[in-house]
């Protein structure tokens, strides 16, 4: 496993990180989930990402129990705030940031998180209030650093321009071979401002592993076949996308990589990407994905990928 600095922070994170959206505490049986975390630690993954909204606290509770007993400085722990936890508990007001962080810390069984992230931008709360509250939790020692997820470049810029508030060190956008939107505005801003990117869904929710042939039902043990985990796949299940993905197989074979490793190495080719979050349901997936760390793709391979996928981007 290779490691990268997370933006301007002093956090060093594994190039592959383990997430818990739709999986741990909800979609994956507890023993299998624990096995994934244990395998992640074995292969050198030190960065675990979650959110209060994942399973309404269930993912945090699972991680808290699973990581309990490990030396706290041996792993980097990130969670998020914004999405509803009840009819009235939602958003990024100062009250909610403090309230939700306290609840997250209890579930995670820790005194602090290394990274506390705004899960989305809150248009109903003044940005100044949000950033001041984040500044306060850092000063209180309950969060070491602040990050954001799925903020537009202009929103990030506005937060950076505020005086006397904590500085954003990370961004968490969706990014994959099939979803390249951050390349236009977010990545250039992050590059110039030393903001690291922790990209989510780098495998397009498993589609880029090639396990979903066009015109066929999904494998019974796959994310797409799960009622709780397969609801967000959208266009990734369209036959034209699946057909294009199948054409990546010879490229991966030629590079002596699995399809997942090819997709992960593709997102990690950019220095502005600090880590790629995987969402494994089996330990074997963790091990396979982790092997993408350190892989360098040639210009010929990168061009071949673009030639295959251009029609569906």
What labels would you give this structure?
10 strands; 35% helix; alpha/beta; TIM Barrel; 11 helices
SSE layout and pairing:
Elements: E1 3-5, E2 12-14, E3 16-18, H1 30-42, E4 47-49, H2 58-67, E5 76-81, H3 94-108, E6 113-118, H4 127-139, E7 143-149, H5 153-161, E8 168-172, H6 186-193, E9 196-199, H7 239-246, H8 249-254, H9 259-268, E10 273-278, H10 283-290, H11 299-309
Parallel strand pairs: 3-10, 4-5, 5-6, 6-7, 7-8, 8-9, 9-10
Antiparallel strand pairs: 1-2
Helix pairs in contact: 1-10, 2-3, 3-4
Description:
The protein is an alpha/beta fold. The chain has one domain: NADP-dependent oxidoreductase domain (TIM Barrel, Alpha-Beta Barrel), CATH 3.20.20.100. 35% of the residues lie in helices and 15% in strands. It is built from 11 helices and 10 strands. The chain has an 8-stranded parallel β-sheet, with helices on one face. Helix 2 crosses helix 3 and helix 3 packs parallel to helix 4. It is globular.
């Amino acid at each position: 496993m290779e490691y990268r600095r997370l933006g301007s922070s002093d956090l060093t994170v594994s190039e592959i990180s383990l997430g818990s959206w739709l999986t741990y505490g909800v979609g994956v049986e507890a023993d299998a989930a624990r096995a994934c975390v244990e395998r992640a630690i074995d292969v050198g993954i030190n960065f675990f990402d979650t959110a209060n909204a994942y399973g309404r606290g269930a993912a945090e509770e699972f991680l808290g129990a699973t990581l309990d007993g490990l030396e706290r400085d041996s792993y980097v722990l990130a969670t998020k705030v914004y999405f509803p936890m009840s009819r009235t508990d939602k958003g990024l007001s100062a009250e909610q940031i403090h309230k939700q962080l306290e609840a997250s810390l209890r579930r995670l069984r820790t005194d602090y998180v290394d990274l506390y992230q705004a899960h989305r931008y809150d248009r109903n709360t003044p940005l100044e209030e949000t950033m001041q509250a984040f500044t306060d939790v850092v000063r209180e020692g309950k969060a070491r650093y602040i990050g954001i997820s799925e903020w537009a470049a202009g929103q990030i810029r506005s937060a950076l321009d505020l005086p006397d508030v904590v500085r954003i060190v990370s961004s968490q956008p969706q990014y994959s071979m099939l979803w390249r939107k951050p390349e236009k505005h977010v990545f250039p801003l992050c590059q110039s401002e030393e903001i690291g990117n922790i990209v989510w869904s780098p495998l397009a929710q498993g589609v880029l592993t090639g396990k979903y042939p066009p015109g066929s039902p999904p494998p019974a043990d796959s994310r797409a076949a799960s009622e709780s985990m397969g609801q967000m796949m959208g266009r990734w299940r369209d036959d034209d996308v699946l057909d294009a993905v199948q054409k990546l197989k010879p490229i991966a074979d030629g590079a002596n990589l699995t399809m997942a490793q090819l997709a992960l190495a593709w997102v990690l080719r950019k220095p502005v990407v600090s880590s790629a979050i995987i969402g494994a349901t089996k330990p074997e997936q963790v091990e396979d994905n982790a092997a993408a760390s350190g892989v360098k793709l040639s210009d010929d391979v990168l061009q071949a990928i673009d030639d295959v996928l251009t029609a569906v981007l």
